Amino acid sequence: MQSVRLRATNKIALCDIPKPTPGPDDLLIRVEACGICGTDRHLFKGEFPCTPPVTLGHEYSGIIEATGANVTGFAIGERITADPNISCGTCPQCRLGRVNLCQNLVALGIHRDGGFAEYALVPQKQAFLLPTTLHPHHGAFTEPLACCIHALDIAAIKPGQSVIVLGGGVIGLLCVQLARLAGAAQIILVTRQASRRALAETIGATASCDPNATDPLTLIPNGADVIFECAGVAETVAQAPKLAKSGGTVVIVGVMPKGEKVEIEPLDLLFRELKILGSFVNPFTHRRAADLIASGTIKVEPLISRRITLAEAPDAVASPPRPGEVKVLIVP
Length: 332
Fold this sequence. Notes:
Elements: E1 2-8, E2 11-16, E3 26-35, H1 38-44, E4 54-55, E5 59-67, E6 79-82, E7 85-86, H2 92-95, E8 106-107, E9 119-123, E10 127-130, H3 142-155, E11 162-166, H4 170-182, E12 186-190, H5 194-203, E13 207-209, E14 224-229, H6 234-243, E15 244-252, H7 266-272, E16 275-278, H8 286-295, E17 304-308, H9 313-318, E18 327-330
Parallel strand pairs: 11-12, 11-14, 12-13, 14-15, 15-16, 17-18
Antiparallel strand pairs: 1-2, 1-4, 3-5, 3-9, 3-18, 5-6, 6-10, 7-8
């Protein structure tokens, strides 16, 4: 089968590899779609730890073609989405229920072969059913949505509160929709990309602004109750606390390169009693995400910028996103 593999830092290629055979607890799926994530670009550049050579892709769904001898609850022909983050279940963090902080965490598409391929193996405990009536490409949004749900859980938005989302990529636009569902009265999307601002206002943002032209605090003078940093760049991470009202919460969702530093003023955090929280992957949120995708409550079709083949994927991962691009899907 064809597979897009990260061979080493800055080395990615379309390869022919053997079609996998499911172990006793595995599902073999025919991949219908897999999203390219910003993390994949970090992996390519060596800015995020992984174990090459490995087939990339951790945002995917597909149709079951074979099951292992021990598999129950799944049948050939059903559609599933894969939660890529495999926790050990026995380390101290897992025993406390913090499976996303597992000391032995292994991820599909990062440490084990993932979804940039015609076929993929998914351990049955990482598989979640999706309706066969669902658009075959929409299941690929389950993983990023699950991560955003965790960020919303951490933020604990109350109805009527105000929210600023920094970054208009897929994570930012999903957080906009979730903030709307949570009852936020004001949701402001901040991004330089005009097309992303326009899209945000059609799916839930009450306003948007270009930070080069408008200070977000002119739209919400006292600051917002909750700031979601979804861009994963030093500039917006440093900006986020300045946009929060006193007593507000900043949730860091975007992924910055390992080792990059940001200046924060501790006295400001102290005197305004700000909370700065990290949100890492998707503990126990994948089922909720799958249900939101299946119900159509979260709009994902408008977030698809283009669909590409496996042959086009290496160049797409190695190149920066195109201007205004939100989500690129690989359709094997």
